[in-house]
Structures are given as C-alpha cells and as structure tokens.
Write a structure and sequence with these properties.
Oligomer: single chain
Distance between the termini: 43 Å
Number of strands: 20
Structural class: mainly beta
Mean pLDDT: 86
CATH architecture: Beta Barrel
Order of helices and strands: EEHEHEEEEEEEEEEEEEEEEE
Amino acid sequence: MMTTKKLGKVSWFPLPYNSGHRNVQGRLGASLILGLTTLGSSPVQALKTDFGMEYRATAFALQSSAFENASGESDTDNGLGHLVRVKANFLDEDTGISVRTSIELAGDRWVGDDHDTGSNAPSFNTTSRGDNVRLDLGYVQIPLSKVILHVGRVASSFNHCFISCDDRHDTLLVFGQLGRNTTLFAEYYRVNDTSPFQSKDNGGEVDVGVISKFNGIKTGLLYGVWENSYDSGYGTPDANGYDMSGVNLLTGYVSGDIGHFTATAGFNWFGGGNVKYRDGDGKTTGQVFSSDSPAAYLRLVRDSAPWQFGLQVVGVWDGGYVSPGFDTWSSMLNSNPTATNNPTSLYAIGQGFGLKGFDQNLIATKIGFDVTPKLNITGAVGRLHIDNHGKLSYTAKEQESSMVYDLRFTYKVRKGVKLWWNLGYLEKNRAAEGLHGNGLSGVGSVATFDEDAKATSLNLTVDF
C-alpha cells in the first residue's frame, strides 16, 4: 500500500518503496478568544469589530469493494461530522490596521461520546486536526503608503482552485495596485519547518504574481520557487529532507465571455526539483517534479435561467499537479478543498508529482435546472482516461477509461442557510495508482482501484 506525503500545498503518492513523511498540525487555546473579546471592549481606541459564524454538517456513505480488498472488513462505510468556526475581525479606524481571525471550535468526524480524537483524526480541515479549539486563520493587515501587508495564517485560492483551493498558509504577503485594474503581489510562505536546527527539512516558498481585469477579461499569473534546502543527488532521498526543495512553479489563467458562454482556461507547470526518486533499475522517476510536469484545463459555462450548461476538459501530463479542491463537477473526483474537505471525494487527478509517463485527462459536461428560485437540480457526466505507460508496475492495466456520474440537489432554505444532497458514481480504473480518500471520511490511500465506487452525502451550511 502506498503512503501519502504532506508537502505543504500538495500530498503525493510515492512509489511503493518510498518512505512516509511527517505531518504536523498547530493548535490554539481558548485563551486567545477571550483575549480578542477583551480587545473589542477597549474604550481607548476607535476599534471597530465584526463577528461571524460558519457551521457545516454532513452525513455520508461510501461503497467500493476496493476498500474491502485492501484488507478492510467491509466494502461500505458511513459517518457524520460537523464544523464550527467563530470569526472575529478588529479594525483600528485611526490607523487602518486590522487583525482578522477564524477559530475552529469543532471540525471532526463524529467518533462518539469520547472526543479524544488526537492530532490525526478525520476532519474537514486537513491543515488543522484534533478535538481541541484551534486556529483556522489569524493575521494582521497593515496598510502602508502604496501597498498592503499581511502577516500570519491566511486563506489561499488561486487559478479557480486549479493550483490552490481554500488552503491555509503561514505567510508574509504584500500587494498593491498598478493602475486601476491590476494588482501585483509577492509572498514568502513557510510550507514546512518541523525540526529546529535541521535546515534540510525547511520548506520556504517565494511567490510573485499579477492579477488584472481589462474589458471584462480576467487574467492571473504566478511564479513560485521553493528554497534549495536539500539536494538528494544520486543517492536515496533522506526521509528528513524536504521533497519540494528547488521546485519551480508557474500557474496562470484567463477568463472572459465568448458569445453566450463564459470561457476559462488555465495551466500549471512544475519542474526543476532537487529531490530525485528512482525506480528499481536506478532510473529517475521524475518525482518530485525534477522534470517538466504540466497540467491544463478549459471550461465553458452558460447561465441562461432557469438552465445552466457546462463543458470542461482537463489534461495532466508526466505527473502534473492539480489541486484536490479543483471542481470537476463530480463529488467523487477532486472537489475536495483543503480546509473544507468533501467526505465523498475518493480519487483526485493531478497527484503524480512529476512521475514521468503518468498521464490523465477528463472530459465532463453538466446541465442544471432551477426548479424554483430556491431549488436547483444539476447532473454531470464525464470520462476519465488514465495512461501510466507502465510506470506503475502494480496496476492491472497501463491505460483505461472510466465513466463518472454525479447528481446534486441544492435547496436554499433562507439567507445564509443551504442544504444539498450529492450522489456520485465512479467506475473502476485499473491504470490508476489507487483510491485517495479524503481527510474527513478518514479513508486513506488504497493501492488499487479495481472496483467501482459509489458515494452519497447530505450537507448543511449556515453562514452569518
């Protein structure tokens, strides 16, 4: 069975003989909430406060004989979970400086009366686990002469969730306007640092980018590079080394209207990594992004009330990367944001992390209909094709295509309250590296995907 490595933005499947990787989560005590509330009552400063709440609940069921074949006792599982976040923002009106926070009071799969769930418990937020009160977001925003500075733990999404989706980053971010329609930004983002006086495990990333809008056309471009903290050379990679060392990233998108449709196209490119894994013959596999690894998508959507239509194509070559949170229009394929995990997501394209010859593509279409102003029904169907070119010796086939089906009912109960039900079906694909699972269901990676998978969930969100 393969293990999963946590590499900041990405979690990748190594070849079977590779070692695991550490996973460290942060925690925050309730004393901070008390301290922030006390701040809001200070009469000395012109302090403006803003509070909010986010609640999410889910009930789900999963079925696939692939889980039973992988030493499970059953081919089915079901569970429940909920997420409670308290949001508090504080603005000093005299200086414009603000502190923005979000605290998770709960966010785990229900495990029964004993809530000692531990740091690796199934949870919505894969960057913050456990049954303790913990930090979701917390950063200061400081307006300077012509730029704005963010310092702390922030939320991150970019390129329509193709590269990053509801992530949480410990970062130093600065951004400013260039004219009326263009924003420039730069950040230093500490992806990994688990051991003091151990530089080879440091995972710092520097990003620079631009976002613009002209004549209704939206564009974005970001270049990033991970620091050269470790180089595996020709030896076996050190388990304590940071696998993304030296990797370069380029991601971008363009979006605008073409006739009655809104078209969006984007890409990710990774390469230049210092850490090189090898196969049984001593040849480099391409992991972790030591060679060129591209991915791209094209999406066309039309909203012609009460109907909605969509078509999208996704391509991944040589182990290119796609965020698990990218919306494939299937509840079982990707569609699994980092901080709000989807319990029915059981496979994700774009998780080869540079594996040469590992190619994937997806073609999907969807049709939605507003039955009433509050009730929408959307159906989607897609075709997933995987070709591993013999790079995964344990799979039954080198290439295979699978059909993907999805049905969703969404009901807007009232302002801030939404209820939806998903039903998904994913045909087996014996060229895939295996089912991935997700953080909330607690399903880990399964080394085979030799049986069909089915899943359903009933979900409730409340925001105010």
